Amino acid sequence: MSPEFSQQRSDAIREELVANVADTTRSALEPSHQRWLSTAGVLAAGIVVGSAVSAAALSLSEITDLRTNHLPGSSHVTSTGEAINLGVVEQLRLPLNPEDGATHVRVTVSCASAGFTSWGTAPSDSNPVIGCSGREGEDVAAFYDFPLTAAVSSTASPLLVVEGTASLHMTLTYLSLAESEWGVNDSGATFGVTKPNGEFPELQAATGVDVDGNLIGGYVRTDDLNAFGPEWASQPSSPDEAARWQEARSLAYPDGWDIPLYRSDGVTQIGTFRIQMSHIDDSE
Amino acid sequence: MGGTDSSDRDAWDAVLAGDSQAFGTLFDRHRDRVFGHALRLIAHRTDAEDVTAMVFLELWRRRAHVRFVDDSLLPWLLVTTRNVARNASRARRRYARVLAKIPPDLAEPDFSGRESARLDAAEQGAALAEAIATLPPIDQDLIALTALEELTIREASEAVGVSYGAAKTRLSRAHTKLRNLLPVSAASEGAAP
Fold first, then answer.
1. Which contiguous run of DSSP H or E holds residue B23?
2. Distance from CA of B72 to the nearest CA of A (A)
3. What is the pLDDT of residues A188-198, one digit of tens each?
4. B42 touching A, CB under 8 A?
5. How far B152 CA sits from the closest chain A CA (Å)?
6. Which of A53, A98, A197, B63 could tie B165 with a disulfide, CB 3.0–4.6 Å?
7. Which 3 state secondary structure label does DSSP give B142?
8. Pairing between strand A257-262 and A168-179?
9. Residues A196-219: pLDDT tens digits?
10. What is the pLDDT of residues B118-145, one digit of tens each?
11. Which parts of chain A register pLDDT below 70?
12. Residues of A in contact with B46 (CB under 8 A)
């Protein structure tokens, strides 16, 4: 029989959780307390779902930076339709009518009022969420390219859903995106981003830091990403060995470790990339 | 997911609209599953209770990045449980103020057969847990969600944030590795659905 949750502690935890939410909500509504989401955070929420970059420990700004580059294996726009202005939207369930040849719909949003709102065409409420402060000049626009495939929606037409407390300015643009091939360097190694089907190259695109601590784009070896740790060339061969290695790794690297960041040649190191063992970060 | 999970979205919308009591509803609904998942990782009741508390604190802190799978928050909560359990010490520092308000566990040690049986089962699962620990973090999450929490591969892929194809590939490789690491009896516990 499994241990049961102590009811006394459960009641205390529940009370603190509710109070924590109430305190935050109260503070957020007061003009002197403004801690809202960045556009990078909005893009990251959409990008992480089915992302072409599977490397861990990317910060929100790093993911945004990658999105602006045409990396081998990534998709790029081959044609675009005219922008369709939806005006100010609060709640919406809109069947889309894609143009012939369109593979994606780009949904661009900006804040019209304060609150939190999810927006997009993902089928399982996995859409990005935008947080709006309501203060002029503090909020920025965001966009995401949603694929127009049969997997997006079970209905005949893709459905654009907007739900939340913030009203948004919205535009739609139908696009055609083409997937590029991975590059191959002089050593014969593939480089680029992970494809939507899960395949990944030998050198994966990532954003790390240079010797001065500045963000820089480059590539990390897939083998380095999947390594047990910086001092272990192989994987443990038995549970006992794994337990010993894991304890040693936790003591030596409690906050993760760095791996080399290279140019696409896989030889020229230009910086480092941080591997963390948790999604918990220290930034608010 | 169960029938009660179908209204996670309604409760979450209420929370975002300022209804803090709706957050308590979500805790009531998913507490036991989160706690059970934490116990598999920590095997200590009080620590697992603390991890459960921290998971729901993370749910609020990361509210802009919460992900629903078929209208349920549970997969996201389970993935977060693993992350919190891995870095419990760091999470404790972050939430020290809240945890200090929770009464300590003053229950007498349980020397009954129930506790002994639980410890025996824990030992049997230790080999599997150790082998799983050798996998990359994303693979650990996928294994836990499919083999232990009985989510489908699609649900697990959405919870973790990788494509369905990537999840299938990772799980196949992970299962192969686990079979090579473990005796036959332990390996069968982690078989994919």
1. helix B20-42
2. 9
3. 999 988 776 66
4. no
5. 14
6. A197
7. helix
8. unpaired
9. 666 788 998 887 888 887 778 889
10. 444 455 566 676 777 778 877 888 888 8
11. 1-2, 25-70, 75-76, 123-126, 133-140, 149-156, 196-198, 276-284
12. 6, 9
A17/B23 touch (CB, cutoff 8 Å), yes or no: yes
Choose the closest CB to B105 out of A9, A37, A44: A9
> Is the pTM of the predicted complex or chain greater than 0.80?
no
For residue range A136-155, list pLDDT tens digits in order.
665 667 777 788 865 444 45
Minimum distance, in Å, between the CA of residue B8 and any CA atom of chain A = 11
